[in-house]
Design goal:
The chain is an alpha+beta fold and 139 residues long. The protein has 7 helices and 4 strands. The longest helix is centred in the C-terminal third of the chain and has 11 residues. It binds adenosine-3',5'-cyclic-monophosphate.
């Protein structure tokens, strides 16, 4: 059975553009409850650790540099079928391929500066949420 929590980050491009509020509003209006939320900034080492699964990809170095370039908002979201439904809400990784009305279509600048992150599985949602929030910070 699909889990009911996922993890997201509003990325530096969307934060710098002043779109955090719009994005969180769209998330809430789409039926997700915010179970944890913080604005923070990742160090280069922390961004590298978060995206360790992509270490062998050609874009890893640039991704880590970008994700540590400014503040982000990290959040745990709750809804039935959270991982899959949230991936539908944000749209394809490349905003040029994202469907109309999705968060990336509305706010992303490029395949790298793509406004938001969304976990790709229940297991990763748990790991990624735990990267930012202790048990006491998850409601
Ligand atoms: P995200 O969903 O956070 O997962 C990995 C991130 O790597 C992705 O969003 C993009 O920010 C980035 N990414 C994925 N594919 C590419 C690519 N081909 N070129 C540059 N960055 C990418």
């Amino acid at each position: 059975m699909a889990g009911n929590r996922t993890f997201t980050m509003v990325k530096p491009d969307a934060m710098a553009a002043g779109n955090m509020g719009n994005i969180l509003q769209k998330i809430e209006q789409s039926g997700f409850r915010i179970a944890a939320l913080k604005v923070t900034r990742l160090s280069h080492a922390q961004a590298g650790a978060f995206y360790e699964v992509h270490k062998e990809r050609p874009f890893y170095g640039e991704l880590v540099k970008y994700m540590s370039s400014g503040v982000i908002a990290a959040a745990i979201l709750e809804k039935n079928n959270a991982v899959e439904d949230f991936r539908k809400l944000i749209g394809a990784t490349d905003p040029a391929k994202a469907e109309a009305g999705t968060i990336r279509k509305l706010y992303a600048k490029s395949i790298q500066e793509n406004a938001v992150h969304g976990s790709d599985s229940d297991d990763n949602a748990k790991i990624e949420g735990g990267f930012f929030f202790s048990a006491l910070e998850q409601f």
